[in-house]
Structure to design on (251 residues):
């Protein structure tokens, strides 16, 4: 019996399927090493073959599956080393985006950032997990979209969905929420002061904090949450990022 996916109006079928598959892989519905066939996924999710193929191609770019010629795909592991490697790249990319945005920020842009930060603070103190996640991402996207560096933004944005799903899985601890409020505030102050170097340094540190908290969750919960240990090199991760940059939609 096919599952009914909730497809938002205007969302391509492959994108909705990709998001659902990502959730199912990370939650352990499809465990490490599981084989995913086109026929199986068509029947399970009630979609045609083309969205399935496109969704698997996208998830391969994220490092979640490996496509097997004429055999569908096999679920790979999302391990501590992979997350650490990708966050190493993200720290550099996010720092670059922050520095690049500084001199393009208008007073109106700063006002929008102020508003975004204020809304995030309210959600963080109320402890609403979904709102915290959504408004945290909105704050960062708003910070970086003024960078005028589409290539760097694509690399940043490419893994946001993957780590966003992990973040939803583990959530933010109360301590981390308080840290986010303070860190976002200092980043905003640096942007408001047009302090390029300080903005880059603060964003790098902020990204490192997110990495360590997420790794702590993964180490504590491990395979019970569908996350399994394996080996992934920085070189392979960079190659995956660069090979998929052109296929990522910024809209």
């Amino acid at each position: 019996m096919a599952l009914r996916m909730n497809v938002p109006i205007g969302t391509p079928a492959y994108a909705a399927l990709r998001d659902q598959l990502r959730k199912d892989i990370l939650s352990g519905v499809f465990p490490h090493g599981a084989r995913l066939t086109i026929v199986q996924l068509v029947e399970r999710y009630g979609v045609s073959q083309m969205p399935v193929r496109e969704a698997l191609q996208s998830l391969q770019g994220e490092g979640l599956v490996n496509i097997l010629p004429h055999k569908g795909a096999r679920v790979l592991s999302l391990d501590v080393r992979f997350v650490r490697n990708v966050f190493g790249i993200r720290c550099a990319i996010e720092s670059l985006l922050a520095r690049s945005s500084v001199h393009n920020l208008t007073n109106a842009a700063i006002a929008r950032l102020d508003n975004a930060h204020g809304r995030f603070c309210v959600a963080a103190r109320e402890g609403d997990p979904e709102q915290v996640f959504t408004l945290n991402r909105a704050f960062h996207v708003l910070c970086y979209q003024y960078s005028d560096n589409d290539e760097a933004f694509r690399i940043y944005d490419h893994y946001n969905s993957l780590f966003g799903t992990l973040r939803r899985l583990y959530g933010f601890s109360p301590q981390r929420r308080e840290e986010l409020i303070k860190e976002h505030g200092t980043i905003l102050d640096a942007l408001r002061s047009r302090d390029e170097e300080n903005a880059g340094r603060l964003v790098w540190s902020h990204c490192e904090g997110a990495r360590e908290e997420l790794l702590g969750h993964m180490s504590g919960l491990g395979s019970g949450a569908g996350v399994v240990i394996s080996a992934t090199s920085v070189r392979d991760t960079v190659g995956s990022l660069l090979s998929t940059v052109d296929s990522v939609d910024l809209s």
Notes: The chain has two domains: 13-75, 80-247. The two ends are 34 Å apart (CA to CA). The CA atoms of residues 97 and 117 lie 18 Å apart.
